[in-house]
């Protein structure tokens, strides 16, 4: 090794030792007789001291060191007179006896500091420099810790990790596939997996009753802030189980990760049905770090002559505690906010519970003081509270109210990133009807089984059928989801019919799976977690990009290696493809 | 859970307990009053007993169970009268009280037994049934065990696993890339990585001084038995190290895996230079489970009038101990064997050391008895031994002799798959000259550094420059290889020149890496192991396919899911490509 120690480990215990450190020059300060160099590696920072009186030649050489030079430095550990309690190595410094420049460095295009002066575009182009920043290093270290803790936990529970193929078959259902032309099979293509769904089901049929995999998945979608063309899943599947077993097994995984990675003991996760989540939180991924539940007001407000409420499918409100002091301006702003197209409400009604006990609302014309008081009682509103009410079509109004709830939570500082409130959302609808194409789509995927007692509704009322499906939500983010699968060939056939697959489509796309079901498929189910997202939540980050070593930008480009790129005509010819301009 | 126990865990200790098992019907035997069903799951086999006298209805139902039916079975654990010591559960059986068919099965197309009647093609089409066979299940379990042991060991050594991207950039150097058309960047392509080589070097520049990854890699090559279009590497890189540190670190990983996976204590691995390996074993991946070293005979045989030897660049032999009794026919067969195009020798000379001390050779005409005795002494040949000699051009004759050595090792039973003899081969040549294109190619890859003392030869005699490169070989199989990298931009530029890269080529393909080298690249090096191969060696298997869940055939096809396949014209259009017929 070119070093005896790292830059993060020397303490007062090592005083007097001769050591050899390697690392990067973080900064250097020239203080007349002394030159200080902060040497950085993955493990920390150690202060090197060059003394003009003791060794002027060395000191002068040291003054030539630029930022990010890589050096190997030899010296004696000494107690600092001026200790730095913020640094683990802050009690010591190294009195230098010699050093060697292992590599020089050009001046980096941005500062290697937590608060860097580099914009995102520049940092992505020089991602290898960006990754030198503590904050990014810690993100990747957290990701590694999550991965190894996950694997060991799953292994301890008897799961085995099995690698499924990356070169698979394109299926038009779901998002767009990335495809790979086959040279050996002209005019044919592989596809990259959007998930190993069918393979993990085949592994259950193969008898591997507890499978997991941390696996790269791919989706050729138009990218948003929180999407990447390649991402990682914790993919899991079990046989001979019920939904209850899945929820328990993976709740325990989550608790284990909270403990190991965040040092947090989390109690049992609440479970809430999709219907109730929509009703109380206006979201299928409720953030339950705070209450502010939605209440339906239809019975209280209808028939009093206020047309907006009378004609609405749903009148729903929430109590923004302590917001009675909101000014006219603030209320107008909030009204504008809910009317933005992303939220889509037509307006906002408020009922203010003044400190003196009086009530004031924007609908005083239609509602008596006692009408308003009844509404306030629904929310347990106290003097000082502000009830906000939306009205409109049921589904869109639920969602708008859910967004308003989150916005008020943000404004009131109720969403502490250090607080974690996981929960299960269960009993999702099995199907979604799409008006445009006039057909049902699988809410989850076509292999999701219905709740047994709802199977009878499949023909008569498909929209009402609940799925044996579940999501794990943490702080308003869907971390994972899964379902108990259909293991019966007949039921699977019926599902394909309801999803408007022709017999031929189903056969061509999933024929091998349907054949496999004929050879003793066990009852099975599973779950997949968005590993990037989970890391992001645990790391207190905003974007999954910050938890990937080499992410792509919104155009799917890696600006560092400059890809995608043109390929040679020889390559195109070998692959039997031609470009269309 | 639908079961209380697995089919592998019940013993005499459980006698009297009521249990619930789930699994597949391996076989059933109808013995008049009793019906026995062997129930199988991933963990083992348990015998279920149905008694016609006790419960005739249940027994008659059980008789209808076909092979591979999936059932849930309830009963009481009882001691067997007729114990089966070969089975962990062989002391007990379950007296059945009820069962439920969870899923029926068609008759499988081949028997689910270690010695199956199914051919490879059929088994691959029904791979999910093939994987039910013990032998395949054990292979994947071994692979999982290897992976988790590797990860924990690397983690314990301070390495962090970092995921590098799968959608990268095509580089013409090396094998053919698989490419992925980009929809968002028309007429541009991603490539799938042949290895994360450049990314791991960038991670070193980023300061992650100990990186590893178990990672899928891709090569669009014409497939042979031991090649797959996608395969897995244990990819590793370290900074601030010398070759010695790499060899020690990864020798310890290998020893750890031998211990954990094979329960074997392996001593220190021998190290041998490439030149010596070629000289003594005729191979850069010698199988040292047996001796039978090659000896050069040029000095002993030249100038005696035997033209074949006189004109040869190399005359080289080996001692096949105890083979003096080989018949004329056997020697003729062996001569034919070495003359096959795969071996390419022009003939075979033998010198037989008879049991009575006399010597007989196929070149008695040219060599006196004392000439021959001198040769035999070179090999320490004893009465009963047979020395075999090849002659020709140096390099091809070394290789042919190496192949002959392996063949004799096989014939003499010297290659016990339960014996493991790892070693390091070091000091590879840096460059290989290709006569056809009249240029040098990197033997390893263009980032491999020369042995420091040979740098001066780079201009004058590139072919003589040794690389700071090493391979780990186990039982004649190259398990891994790596090198200390060039971290100096000037040296890297010179390498590209020697490899006939134009400035533009180098810039276009590796520009970002060369730029990165300007910002403080630390000295670094690494290694990559063929994970599939390592599993295959440890599992005593023949082909890496048997250690992959869903391998492809020699045409790169997955015959189970029938891919590669056609994609829709909509997809082609979105990707701006057209098929060429």
Summarize the structure.
The structure is a homodimer of 581-residue chains. Chain A is α+β, with helices and mostly antiparallel strands and 581 residues long.
Walk me through this protein's architecture.
Two copies of one chain form a homodimer. With 581 residues, the first copy, chain A, is α+β, with helices and mostly antiparallel strands. Chain A has three domains: 92 residues, OB fold (Dihydrolipoamide Acetyltransferase, E2P), CATH 2.40.50.140; 265 residues, Bira Bifunctional Protein, Domain 2 (BirA Bifunctional Protein, domain 2); 122 residues, GAD-like domain (Gyrase A, domain 2), CATH 3.30.1360.30. Chain A is built from 17 helices and 23 strands. Chain A has an eight-stranded mixed beta sheet with strand order 6-9-10-22-21-20-17-11, sandwiched between helices. In chain A, strands 1-2-3-5-4 form a five-stranded mixed beta barrel. A five-stranded antiparallel beta sheet of chain A has the order 12-13-16-14-15. The mean pLDDT of chain A is 95. At the A-B interface, helix 3, helix 4, strand 6, strand 7 and strand 8 of A face helix 3, helix 4, strand 6, strand 7 and strand 8 of B.
Tags for this entry?
BirA Bifunctional Protein, domain 2, 25% strand, alpha+beta, Gyrase A, domain 2, 581 residues, eight-stranded mixed beta sheet, 29% helix, five-stranded mixed β-barrel, 17 helices, homodimer, OB fold (Dihydrolipoamide Acetyltransferase, E2P), globular, 3 domains
């Amino acid at each position: 090794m070119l070093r005896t120690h790292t830059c993060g480990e020397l303490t007062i215990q090592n005083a007097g030792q001769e050591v050899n450190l390697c690392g990067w020059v973080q900064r250097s300060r020239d203080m007349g007789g002394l030159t200080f160099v902060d040497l950085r590696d993955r493990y920390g920072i150690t202060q090197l001291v060059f003394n003009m009186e003791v060794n002027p030649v060395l000191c002068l050489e040291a003054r030539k060191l630029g930022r990010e030079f890589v050096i190997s430095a030899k010296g004696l550990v000494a107690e600092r007179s001026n200790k730095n309690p913020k640094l683990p190595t802050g009690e010591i410094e190294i009195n230098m006896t010699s050093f060697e420049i292992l590599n020089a460095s050009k001046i980096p295009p941005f500062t290697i500091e937590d608060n860097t002066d580099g914009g995102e575009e520049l940092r992505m182009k020089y991602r290898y420099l960006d990754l030198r920043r503590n904050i990014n290093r810690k993100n990747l270290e957290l990701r590694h810790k999550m991965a190894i803790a996950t694997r060991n936990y799953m292994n301890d529970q008897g799961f085995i990790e099995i690698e499924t193929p990356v070169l698979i078959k394109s299926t038009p259902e779901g998002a767009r596939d990335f495809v790979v032309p086959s040279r050996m099979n002209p005019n044919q293509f592989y596809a990259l997996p959007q998930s190993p769904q069918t393979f993990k089901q085949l592994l259950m049929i193969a008898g591997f009753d507890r499978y997991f995999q941390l696996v790269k998945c791919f989706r050729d979608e138009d990218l948003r802030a929180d999407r990447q063309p390649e991402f990682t899943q914790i993919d899991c599947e079990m046989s001979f189980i019920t939904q209850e077993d899945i929820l328990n097994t993976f709740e325990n995984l989550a608790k284990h990760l909270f403990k190991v990675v965040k040092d947090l003991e989390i109690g049992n996760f609440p479970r809430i049905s999709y219907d109730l989540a929509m009703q109380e939180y206006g979201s299928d991924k409720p953030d339950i770090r705070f209450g502010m539940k939605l209440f339906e007001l239809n019975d209280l407000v209808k028939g009093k002559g206020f047309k907006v409420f009378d004609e609405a499918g749903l009148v729903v409100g929430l109590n923004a505690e302590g917001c009675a002091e909101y000014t006219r301006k603030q209320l107008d702003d909030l009204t504008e906010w809910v009317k933005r197209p992303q939220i889509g409400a037509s307006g906002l009604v408020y009922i203010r519970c003044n400190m003196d006990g009086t009530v004031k609302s924007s609908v005083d014309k239609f509602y008596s003081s006692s009408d308003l008081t009844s509404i306030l009682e629904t929310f347990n509103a106290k003097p000082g509270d502000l009830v906000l009410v939306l009205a409109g079509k049921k589904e869109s109004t639920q969602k708008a109210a859910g967004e308003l709830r989150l916005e008020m939570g943000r404004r009131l500082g109720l969403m502490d990133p250090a607080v974690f409130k996981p929960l299960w959302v269960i009993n999702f609808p099995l199907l979604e009807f799409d008006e445009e194409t006039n057909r049902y789509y699988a809410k989850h995927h076509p292999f999701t089984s219905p709740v047994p007692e709802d199977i009878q509704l499949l023909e008569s009322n498909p929209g009402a059928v609940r799925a044996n499906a579940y999501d794990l939500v943490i702080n308003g983010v869907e971390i994972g989801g899964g379902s108990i699968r259909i293991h019966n060939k007949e039921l699977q056939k019926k599902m394909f019919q309801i999803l408007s697959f022709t017999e031929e489509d189903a056969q061509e796309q999933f024929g091998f799976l349907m054949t496999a079901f004929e050879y003793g498929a066990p009852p099975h189910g599973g779950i997949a977690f968005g590993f990037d997202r989970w890391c992001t939540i645990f790391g207190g980050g905003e974007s999954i990009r910050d938890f990937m070593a080499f992410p792509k930008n919104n155009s799917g480009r890696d600006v560092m290696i400059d890809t995608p790129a043109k390929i040679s005509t020889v390559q195109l010819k070998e692959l039997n493809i031609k470009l269309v301009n």
